[in-house]
Amino acid sequence: ASVIANSLDYPIAIQKRNKTQAYLVGKALFDQMVAQLEDAIDRQAIAETDFSKGEDFEKIAKELGL
Predict the structure, then answer these.
(1) Residues with Cβ within 8 Å of residue 12, at least 6 apart in sequence
(2) Reduced to 3 states, what is the DSSP secondary structure of residue 8?
(3) How far apart are the first and last CA of the chain?
(4) pTM to 2 decimals?
(5) H helices then E strands: how many in the chain?
(6) Could you give the C-alpha distances from 15 to 10, 54, 60, in angstroms and in order?
(7) CA distance 8 to 51
(8) Tens digit of pLDDT for each residue in 6-53?
(9) Separation between Cα atoms, residue 50 and residue 61, nearest integer Å
(10) Burial 23-53 (b: 16+ CB within 10 A, else e)
(11) Cα–chain center distance at 32
């Protein structure tokens, strides 16, 4: 229980025979890491998108019935 409590403040390395096998992180840190990863994926998708080939949003929304 104390290891889990400590993982709320900083990552804990789980080792087997002096080799790191896993990391234990608290929920807040995990959520922050996931959010940053999602942001990086979004930035990459935007950087790779050719907006000159785009279509009007209103037209697409109408076709989708939105």
Answers:
(1) 3, 6, 23, 24, 25
(2) coil
(3) 50
(4) 0.63
(5) 3, 2
(6) 16, 50, 52
(7) 42
(8) 888 889 999 999 999 999 999 999 999 999 999 999 999 888 887 787
(9) 20
(10) eeebeeeeeeeeeeeeeeeeeeeeeeeeeee
(11) 8
